[in-house]
Design goal:
- It is a single chain.
- This protein is α+β, with helices and mostly antiparallel strands and 506 residues long.
- The chain has 16 helices and 18 strands.
- Helix 12 links the parallel strand 4 and strand 5.
Length: 506
């Protein structure tokens, strides 16, 4: 009897250990992209801390930033957008999200409204096998994080036709079990409860500048898509669902280098929004962004474009949304933490990268104070892209009217943010102009352009300091000084030499 009992205990122990091993293997090999993006959503939804949901494709992921919205307006949002998400995938993403929270507003972007197919694993007759595979992979980002229940089964069956492919989503170990050779430290950290998750509430900010944006012809006035598409049908279902639940819904079409067909789809989205009497913000032609500064590639915004678009939406919500400014409320401390973290990440990127154009892009954000100096004879004065980016920082066109030298000082003051913007002061001087007694975090500054190889920028409190002179960089025609306006600490210096319109960090 004792032997039998001992055997049963051993078998039970073996099964427990085996179960734990299998469970651990399932956790480790499971691709964690979806968890990274959506895990924080569950915590904020449980606390009732989400005012707005952003829905759509990668245009939304890269174009609407909950951190910026909270920093400038105090409104809380989560970016639910998925890479490659067509409207039918966005619909199910929304239905899943509404199972956990009831936001006051849903912002749904209508990009890819023209897609006229039901199944992501079949698409249409123009789709290649690689297109279908990419579509399935992208849908994993949307779906993997959600628990297996009737809602997820309904979503998968509605969007995936092949039953074998359906199993990939309903039992994802079947597709991820062979990932052993792809595993990283992050995968093992997940098993230990130290998973890496987004600090931007689902958004992803791109930080490079598109140097050759493309413009496409406009369609005929009011011209729309030639047919009622599956995408249009699911946009209507999204609006229907929100109105049925008493949730405000606003349809958008975020700016990018839209093709003629894209512009027709944008017109069709406007007609659908009007039919349901919901607001429609077609941002393609509102002049919100500068395509020479605010794109990461022709189809996606970079971080400066995202900030501009998010602020435009924030102003709209301030005027129409009846939302509460949560800044200063202890219940929303996580949002305050993420604002600080995002700012530090932006500054770290700025200090660590070596592309002059990207420096100028990042300096247009209100994360750090800086001095930008372009010396007489610099190739930057004949570079239209540099002028655009500098003008974007300064908020003026002065750079276009000088031949050199030129100085720009952007100072964040006490670093405090007011609703709809930051407390920033900008000083500029060009050619023979001087600056005298300007208040900055570096002190009360004086600037004098004496000659090409000798110029002054010093604080009146200590005239022995000349920030613009360095024996090791006397021939560098571009200098950037990055500093903390509250402490006066110099965080970094960057020097470039221009060769025509090419720039090399020294």
């Amino acid at each position: 009897m004792k032997k039998k009992l001992l055997s049963l205990i051993k078998i039970a122990g073996f099964l427990v250990v085996l179960g734990l091993c299998v469970f651990g293997a399932m956790v480790i090999v499971r691709r964690n992209d979806s968890d990274y993006k959506y895990k924080p959503f569950f915590g904020q939804a449980k606390e009732g801390n989400i005012d707005v949901l952003f829905m759509g494709s990668s245009h939304v992921i890269n174009g609407l930033d909950p951190v910026t919205l909270y920093k400038d307006y105090g409104y809380t949002a989560y970016n639910m957008g998925g890479h490659g998400s067509v409207m039918q995938a966005t619909y199910w993403e929304l239905i899943e999200a509404l199972d956990y929270c009831t936001p006051k507003w849903v912002v749904v972007d209508a990009y890819m409204l023209e897609k006229n197919y039901q199944y992501l694993d079949e698409m249409d007759e123009t789709a290649s096998e690689s297109d279908k595979k990419a579509s399935i992979d992208q849908f994993h980002l949307n779906m993997d994080v959600w628990p297996l229940n009737k809602l997820k089964i309904a979503a998968v069956k509605d969007l995936i036709h092949d039953k074998d492919v359906q199993k990939e989503f309903l039992f994802d170990f079947s597709v991820y079990h062979s990932r052993w050779n792809e595993l990283t430290k992050d995968d093992y950290d997940t098993l230990m409860g130290k998973e890496n998750v987004t600090s931007r509430f689902g958004s992803e900010m791109r930080k490079e500048v598109e140097m050759s944006p493309t413009l496409f012809p406009d369609p005929a006035e009011g011209q729309e898509l030639a047919e009622h598409t599956v995408g249009a049908e699911y946009l209507m279902k999204i609006i229907d669902e929100c109105q049925r639940r008493g949730i405000g819904v606003v349809v958008t079409y975020l700016p990018f280098c839209a093709t003629t067909d894209d512009k027709m789809a944008a017109n069709s989205a406007g007609t659908i929004a009007a039919r349901y009497s919901v607001p429609y913000l077609n941002m393609l032609n509102l002049g919100i962004i500068d395509i020479d500064c605010d794109l990461n590639d022709p189809g996606h915004l970079n971080i400066t474009g995202a900030v501009k678009v998010t602020d435009y939406l924030g102003k709209w919500l301030m005027e129409n949304g009846d939302l509460t400014d949560h800044r200063g409320d202890a219940a929303f401390e996580k949002f305050n933490e993420c604002v600080s973290l995002a700012s530090r990440e932006n500054v770290d990127f700025l200090l660590g990268q070596t592309n002059f154009y990207d420096d100028l892009e990042m300096l247009s954000l209100d994360d750090v104070s800086a001095v930008v100096y372009l010396n007489q004879g610099s190739g930057s004065f004949s570079d239209d892209e540099v002028k655009k980016l500098v003008s974007n920082i300064a908020g003026s066109d002065k750079i276009y009217n000088v031949s050199g030298p030129y100085i720009l000082i952007k100072d964040l003051g006490d670093g405090k943010t007011i609703q709809g913007g930051s407390n920033v002061t900008v000083y500029e001087a060009g050619d023979s102009e001087s600056l005298d007694g300007i208040a900055t975090g570096l002190g009360t500054m004086v600037y004098q352009p004496v000659e090409q190889l000798f110029r002054f920028l010093y604080p009146k409190e200590d005239e022995s300091i000349n920030y613009l002179y360095d024996d090791d960089h006397i021939y560098d025609d571009i200098q950037i000084i990055i500093y903390d306006s509250e402490s006066g600490e110099i965080l970094g210096r960057k020097y470039y030499k221009s060769y025509g319109c090419e720039y090399k960090e020294d």
